[in-house]
Amino acid sequence: MDNSEIADRLDALAALLELVDSNPHAVRAYRRAADTVREAAFPVAELVASGRARELRGIGRSIEARLRELVETGSIAELDELERELAPDLVGLGRYLGLGARRSVELARALGVSTADELREAASEGRLRTAPGIGPKTEARLREALGRERKPRPRQGLVLNRARELVGGIAAALDGEAAGDVRRWRDSCEALAVVCAGEDGPATLEQFETLPQIVTLIEREQRRAVGLTVEGVPVELIVAPPERFGTELVRATGAPTYVAALEPLPEAPDEEAVYRGLELPWCPPELREEPFRGEPPELVELEAIRGDLHCHTRWSDGRASVADMGRAARERGYDYLAICDHTPAVGAVRGLTADDVRRQADEIAAANELLAPFRVLRGIECDILPDGSLDLPDEVLSELEWVQASVHGGQRMPQRQLTARVEEALRNPYVRCLSHPKGRYINRRPENALDLDRVFEVALAEDVAVEVNGLPDRLDLSGEHVRDALGAGVEIVCSTDAHSVRGLANMALSVATARRGWASTANVVNARPLSAILR
Ligand SMILES: [Zn+2]
Ligand SMILES: [Zn+2]
Q1: What pLDDT does residue 86 have?
Q2: Rounded average pLDDT over 89-96
Q3: Angle formed at CA 46 by CA 42 and CA 52, multiple of 5 degrees
Q4: Closest ligand to 411 CA?
């Protein structure tokens, strides 16, 4: 059993414990343990077998016992029992309908049904309202959601990395292509689709139905099905005859208005041939948002990135040391990495004082000796205080090689005030980049009121870049705003804001978001060599 399998089982246990309203601390502990196991650089199963699991961070006695059971028997009895009792297909269908796990199990019990299929049958026979608590209005809503008229959508969009993992996993298992919003790298994914090439539609559909990610099908045709995950997220599968694979892939990838403007699509086995048939150049998926028939620009590629300019270490809220982060960045093929830990005003986590910044310099110098010619840069993620001044004195900032300025507290300031605050910070001569300008958390916190047009004007005048933050729930600037920034002549930095070695991998999300904003290599500061960063 490898680390990711073990982590998945711990995550599944956490999810089910949450369903039965277990102690939230326990649920969080299992989730944290799953993360620890997933990130471990050695086989955790061996550590467990030799009785040393508790050497891992966050693994206490009770989780160790579960790990031992899992490694020795291949399963966790409580998890199996919960999975049986909670009928994942019912839970998935119920959540898709907006019911919540407990409520769907109660509804199923009241109706005397035990599978998602039986629940759907009960609905079509008009029996839903015989269950306590289901009035005519709720019934109508549930029946409409079960109907086939509307496109299946999750109740809330999935953050990109979660959507990529889900759709990518299904595509890999079926030897197909991830399509839909995932292939366009949308920041919140709703249309989740996989396209496969195959002569035998029903056989592939059957394989789809038995995947561990899919708990039930809500639609099934000869060559198309919609499956649900246990979270109630619908995923569409299209099985195209090989000679039409390209056609179906184009159709399942683009936003509806983009595809509609290309129709009718010629039949072709691959996308290149579809576009040739349309007498159009092939278009990168990231640009298939709105109708577009022109020559696409040369977009920046992940391989063009020479370094990461925003990451954290244990000095603030990161999980790894300076040297570990540097080594991991070097292994990615980068030439440099800027360590940008927080300053004290960030509040919730530890921030570096002037003194700390100077002590950290020693550690960075030591890492550089180890990693040369790779270069670890002395950086900071400096808070912008409410009056627009910075959280460290200029004389400290002047020693640093890369300064990010960030608004953390006070995102809800009115537009005038917030914009003036940021403008003031951009005028500081040491600031090189404005972090996560719109301050959003996807699905959790809306964008702030910052006047980007004004900020871009000042950024251009002061030669400050704006960040495309690659944290999966930030992706800030968004593709749309990147396009505005570039239109205003402002340069961008593609950063991960990594808090762990694994977090450095989010560069792919940042670069894809920049591509959605039509960015080319020339627009991206960290696609340049070290000498350009150390101007
Ligand atoms: Zn930040
Ligand atoms: Zn940060």
Answers
A1: 78
A2: 87
A3: 95
A4: 1
Cβ atoms of residues 94 and 107 within 8 Å? yes
Q: Going by C-beta distance under 8 Å and a sequence separation of 6 or more, which residues neighbour residue 218?
A: 93, 96, 116, 120, 146, 152, 226, 227, 228, 234
In angstroms, what is the span from residue 226 Cα to ligand 2's centroid? 38
Strand segments (E) across 177-296: 177-179, 188-189, 192-197, 216-220, 224-228, 234-240
**pLDDT per residue over 13-54, tens digit each?**
998 887 776 788 989 999 999 999 988 889 999 999 999 999
Whole-number Å distance between alpha carbons of 345 and 425: 15
∠ CA 277-283-285, nearest 5°, is: 125
- Measured in Å, residue 56 CA sits from the centre of ligand 2 at 26
pLDDT one-digit tens code per residue, 205-216: 999 999 989 999
Of the listed ligands, the closest to the CA of 318 is 2
Give phi and psi for 336, each to the nearest 5. -155, 160
Give per-residue pLDDT as tens, 102-137. 788 888 888 988 888 888 889 888 898 898 888 888
> In what helix (H) or strand (E) does residue 492 lie, and over which residues does it extend?
strand 492-495
Q: Residue 390 and residue 397: Cα distance in Å, rounded? A: 9
State the ligand closest to the CA atom of 341: 2
Q: In degrees rounded to 5, what are phi and psi of residue 309?
A: -110, 10
Ligand nearest to the CA of 503: 2
Judged by phi (left if over 0) then psi (alpha if -120 to 50, else beta), residue 380 lies in beta
In the reported structure, the alpha carbon of residue 395 is separated from the centroid of ligand 2 by a whole-number distance in angstroms of 22
Question: Distance from the CA of 404 to the center of ligand 2, in angstroms?
Answer: 9
Ligand nearest to the CA of 316: 2
Rounded to 10°, the helix 479-487/507-516 angle is 60
Q: What residues have their beta carbon closer than 5 A to ion ligand 1?
A: 406
CA of 498 to the centre of ligand 2 (A): 7
**Closest Cα to residue 512, out of 258, 164, 260?**
164
C-alpha 313 to ligand 2 mean position (Å) = 10
Give, to the nearest 10 degrees, the angle between helix 415-426 and helix 452-462. Answer: 10
In 41-187, which ranges are continuous DSSP H helix?
44-49, 61-73, 77-85, 88-96, 101-111, 116-124, 136-146, 160-173, 180-183
Residues measured by CB to lie within 5 Å of ligand 2, the ion? 381, 497
Distance 467 CA to ligand 2 centre (A): 11
Sort strands 224-228 and 216-220 into parallel, antiparallel or unpaired: antiparallel
